[in-house]
Write a structure and sequence with these properties.
Structural class: alpha/beta
Number of helices: 13
């Protein structure tokens, strides 16, 4: 059978996107046997299996045995990308695809969207076009960003509109860091999140949600890390993203294509915010004492403690669709039994208008954990992408914070000063209120306006 060569481009935006990128490409390197310098890894002293696996979908080969990630890094200020270049992995990336401006977006969506994106995106779009031209058959783009930052919200929203215009037939998926309910990195996060979501609602096919607080809790409670750092959080995100993209990088018994994600996870165009779960999350001390069978791993995915977004109690919401991506030696029979057991459990509820509910992916390549990392090495794992109506709690939480500030018009002058119209605030808030309503209607089984198009 001829090799499938459908390239995927990764675009990392802002501080969160760039730092996630460092962890994600380190993880890919481990799995494909590609070192920090882009060369094939030599056998490690500890005898780890560093077998080389070619990956034309995510790496381009320069003809001299060096593999370069199909990745573009974008930030409006130079510091974070300079740090990436100075890091051990910095040599891996093509310097032409590291695009940085000279000014900080100052946690301001309007500054990112109206003032800085025009300058920053000229070089970024040139890099993206060049990468697209070098590809035989580009299947789509994966974007990594935060909702709360100025670059992550403003520049990402502008870039998405440009991508929709220039590459209308290519899939656009994102891994998005969503504001945590209590753990904030910026006062104006609610403004940035609501404005960015409003502006990019029609430009993004599917946005996989994660929040720092949920990941922080997983690191503290399940991995027993006393004071988790961003490096710990990003290492876990790298593992999760690797689980989602495994079927795009390796051959498998039942592979999932980029376009299949949206086909199976987006019941209506606007309801495109699935949450992510991952199992097993085990420390090296506990690895020999826990149950690793398929049924136990699959049940863990539905526990709030394994989910990457804090959205009230997911048990209150209903699942519209679940995409289960298994890795390792796994028999379809075991998966079917695990799913039948889940369906028989009353604690996990599905909407009555989606009788099947599950999309399955099986990839024979076992997961690779970082040497001396937080997660114990295991022979199989599963990542779940789930469209659930419980995510509306996360949106109502951010909308409430938006209302509290906007009622007093607090901090609004910083946004208006960058050329944004006041009207955009109320339009964005109205759009998000409709999004909440769309999720509630999906939960109640009433026909959603989102389906009428």
């Amino acid at each position: 059978m001829p090799k499938r060569n459908r390239e995927t481009m990764s675009i990392h935006l802002g501080q969160a996107g760039v730092q996630m990128g460092e962890a994600i490409w380190t993880q890919y390197g481990l799995e494909h046997g590609i070192g920090m310098d882009g060369q094939r890894m030599a056998e490690m002293a500890d005898g780890c299996d560093t077998q080389f696996h070619e990956c034309p979908a995510f790496y381009s080969e320069n003809g001299e045995g060096r593999y370069v990630p199909r990745a573009v890094f974008i930030d409006t200020e130079p510091m974070v990308i300079d740090q990436l270049q100075a890091a051990e992995i910095g040599e891996l990336f093509n310097p032409d695809y590291l695009v940085r401006g000279k000014e900080d977006a100052a946690n301001n969506y309007a500054r990112g969207y109206y003032s800085l994106s025009h300058r920053t995106l000229v070089g970024a779009l040139e890099a993206i076009r060049q990468m697209a031209e070098d590809a035989d058959n580009l299947q789509g783009m994966l974007l990594y960003h935060s909702f709360g930052g100025g670059t992550g919200s403003g520049v990402t929203a502008h870039l998405l509109q440009q991508l929709e215009e220039e590459f209308p037939r290519k899939t656009r998926l994102s891994f998005s860091v969503y504001p945590s309910p209590y753990l904030c990195t910026s006062v104006v996060e609610p403004y940035n999140t609501v404005l960015m979501t409003h502006r990019s609602m029609n430009s993004m096919e599917c946005s996989f949600m994660m929040d720092n607080q949920a990941i922080y809790s997983i690191c503290s409670s399940r991995l027993a890390i006393e004071r988790p750092s961003y490096a710990n959080l990003n290492q876990l995100i790298g593992q999760v993203v690797s689980g989602v993209t495994a079927s795009l990088r390796f051959g498998g018994d039942l592979n999932v294509d980029m376009s299949e994600f949206q086909t199976n996870l987006v019941p209506y165009p606007r309801l495109h915010f699935p949450l992510i779960s991952f199992a097993p999350i085990i420390t090296c001390e506990n690895v020999n004492h826990e149950n690793h069978d398929i049924g136990a791993m699959t049940r863990q995915l539905f526990e709030p403690a394994c989910q990457m977004v804090r959205c009230g109690s997911p048990r209150r919401g209903k699942y519209m669709a679940c995409c289960l991506l298994y890795r390792g030696h796994i028999l379809p029979k075991d998966i079917n039994e695990a799913i039948a057991s889940i369906k028989a459990t009353r604690s996990v509820r599905f909407v009555d208008w989606c009788p099947t509910g599950f999309k399955i992916g099986i990839n024979a390549m076992p997961p690779k954990m970082a040497p001396n990392g937080d997660l114990a090495p295991v022979r199989r794992c599963v990542t779940m992408l789930a469209s659930t109506t419980a995510i509306s709690d996360a949106w109502s939480n951010i909308d409430e914070k938006f209302d509290t500030m906007y009622r007093k018009r607090a901090f609004v002058h910083w946004f208006v000063g960058e050329g944004m119209e006041m009207q955009e605030f109320s339009e964005a808030r109205e759009n998000l209120a409709c999004l909440e309503m769309d999720y509630r209607e999906a939960d109640s089984g009433v026909s959603s306006d989102a389906s009428e198009f």
